[in-house]
Design goal:
heterodimer; A: 469 residues; alpha+beta; Arc Repressor Mutant, subunit A; 3 domains; 3-stranded antiparallel beta sheet; 12 strands; elongated; B: 265 residues; Aspartate Aminotransferase, domain 1; 2 domains; 10 helices; 8 strands; 12% strand
Chain lengths: 469, 265
Amino acid sequence: MTKDWISYLSAAFRLVDLHDSARSFGSASTSLKEERTGRRDGVWLNLACHLLSYLDECDLETNEGWNPIGPFVKDVCGRYRSLNDDDVQLVISYLSTPTEVYFIKDEPTKGQQRVASTKDTALIERRSIRGQTDLCRLTQRGRLAITLAKASHNWLYTHHDADKLMTALLYGEFHDIPKQCASLGQSIRAFAHEITRTMEQPGQNEVIAHFLDRGNQYLDSIRKVQTAVQNAREHLGTADVRERLNQWFEQNEGMGLDLGVMRRTLDELMQTVERLSRRFSAFLHQVTDTQREVVGAIPFEKAALAFVFQPPSLTVMDMLTSNLGAWLPEMCFGAPEDMQGILRAEIDRHQASQPKVFGEDAGATRERTVMELFVHEHREAMFAALKAGPVRLGTALTMGWAKIGDQCHLTELVGVYSAPSWLGRGADVIQLRIKPGSLDARVEGCTWLAGDDIEMQLVQEQGGNNGPE
Amino acid sequence: MDLNDMGQLHAFLMRYRCIESRPRSRKLRRNESELAGILIEAGAEGLEQMNRFLAGQGLDLIEFTDTDMPGITTGGRVWVLARSPEATPPAFFSIDQVMARMKLRDDTREAAAVWYLHIWLIHLALLYSHKGRAVSAVSGYLDSAFEEETLIQGVRDHIERVRSIGLDAGAEQRVYAILTDERGTDVAKRVRAFLGLMVDSGLLGHADSGVYEQTLLGAVEISQSFSRTLQHILPDEDALSNIVNLSAPVTEKGEEEEAWPEETE
C-alpha cells in the first residue's frame, strides 16, 4: 500500500522543494540542500498512508459520510507500542490543516500571467469534540490523491484510460483522440520497457515474481486495452459517428485532424498494444519455461590487467575480435551510392557543354568542363610532385589540390586518382596502388575521408620500381 | 521481398550494419528509408526470409520496435545486423584489415592484437563496469556516452598499473614489453585508430565531437556473445584478486556491486 504512495510522492518531492525555494532571480547561486528535516524512519508517512487508506475503505460504505477513527487508533497502537493518542492527533492535524501553494496562472483575456494561490490542500476533514478528533472523512483532494497514487504504480488500471477513447467518441470530443492515443501509447511503451529492463538485470526476482503472480491480470488488462481500442476503431466507422465527425470537422477546420488521421492513430495504437501483448507473453514464457541467462557487471579493467599475466594466444585474440570486436568485410559490396561521384561529374560535363540559349557567342568557344579546369589548374604541380616520388590521395589533400580558390574540388581530385589518364599521359606511365586503411583526412571541416588510401606513382620508362605490394 | 530487395538490404547492411526507419540522432542515409519500407512491408515473413539468407553467413538481422527498446523513436523500427552467437563469423570478415589499422610504425601483428584487446577491454570498462551496468543490459546503450579523452586516460592508467606491477611479479614478458613500449602520443593514436574501427563496424557511434556512444548493435552483440566467448577466457576470480592485489589501489567507481560472472535463473 505504501508502495503506491511512495511512487506518487517521489515524483512530487523535488517540485515541492522548488516551490519552497526562497531564491530570487539573479541572486548568488547557492548549493542545494539535500538534507530533509525529520527523523528519517518514515513512521509518520507510514501512519498517514494507513489513515488515508483506512478512510478510503470506510468511504466505500459511508459514501462521503463521517467515519470514527477509534478502530484506526486501536489498530496502529497495536502496531507501534509506544504510540499514544496525541501522536495520532498530530497525523490528523497535518493531513487536515491546509497549506498554501503559490503558482502562476495565465489570464487569457488579458494575455498576461499573474500569481495565484490555493489552500485546497487538506486531504482529510475532522470533527472535534473537546479538542479531540473523533470523526474524519476524506476531502475531494484526498480522494484525488488516492486515485493518483493508485494509478502511479499500477499498469493494471491502464484499460480505464483506453475506455476514455470510446467516451471521447461518444461525446464527440474528437480533438481529444490523438492526445489520448499518444498518452496511452506512452504508458504502453513505458510498461514494455520495464519488462525489457527487468529481463536484462540480474537479481530482479521480486519484480519477476510480481509479474508471474499477477501475469493473468496483466494479460487481462492488455486484452481489455486491446478491446477498447478495437471498439473505438469500429465505432469510428459507424454512420452516426461519421456524421458527427463531419459536423465537427466543419466547425474545426484547420486542426489538421480528419477521419484518415484518426484511423491511422488508432491503428498505430492497436499495433503498439499487440506488440506489448506479444512481448508480455514472451516474457512470461521466458521466465517460466526456460533458463534465464543474465550476465551481471564484469570488472573489465581487472580482466585487462589479468591478461598481462595470463595472455591469451594470438589465435584466441583473433577469435575474440572476429566474434565481438570490430570487423570490416574483406571484399567489396557495390552499392548504388558508390557511383555517386561519377554521376556528378557526368552531369557537370553535360551542363557545361549545353549551348547557351541566350547570348551571342553560342557555338563559338566551348566552355571548359569542371574536370578540365581542375586538371589545367593542378596538372603541373602534380607532375612535379610525382617526379619526386609517389603521392597518396591523403597527401594530395594536404597539398591543397582539392581546391581551386575557395571552391572544393574533391570529386575531381578523386576522379584523377581513379583515372589518372585525365592528366594527359598514358595510363602505363602512372601506376595506382591501394594502401589499406591508411586514409584519414578531413576536408573542408565537414567531410571526413577514411578507408583505403590510393597512391599514385610515376613509372620510369626503363623498368623502375613497379613491383606489386 | 524479392531478390533485388534482398541484395540491396545486404549491401546496405554490410556497409552500415543497421537500418533505422526514423533515426534518433542522425540524418537518414541514402536508400535507408526505402529499405526500412521494404522490411516493414515484408513483415515477419520477410524478416525470416532475410534471416534464412543471412544465417548461412553467420549473421542475424534483429528487429527492434519502440515497444521493445527505449531510445527508438516513437513509431520507429531498427534492424541490426549482428553476428550470430551460434555460428562462426563469415569468412569474408577481415581481422587483417582491423589489425593493419591498429599498427603504428613497424608494429608486429601480435602487438596490434594485444593493443586492440587491451583498449577494447578498457572501453568495455567505461561502458559497463564504471556504470555498474550488467553485460546483459542492452537498453543501457542509451546511457553509454564517453569522451575520447576519458578512454585515452583510461588506457594510460592501465599501462601505468602494468608498469607498477612489473615483470618481477609475473607479468608475461612479451605483453609487458608491447604495452610499456609506448612513446609520446602513441596511446592517443592507438585509441583513435580503435575508435575509428569501432565506428566503421557500427559498434560505436559519434554522439558529439570527441564523444562516442555504444550503438544498439554493439550492446546486442556483447549481451549475446559474451558468455560464449570472453567469459571462458577470463581468469577466475581468485587469480584475478591475486593480480589486482599486486597493483596499486585504483579507485573504480561503481564496482562495489560487481558480481563475477554469471547469474542463471
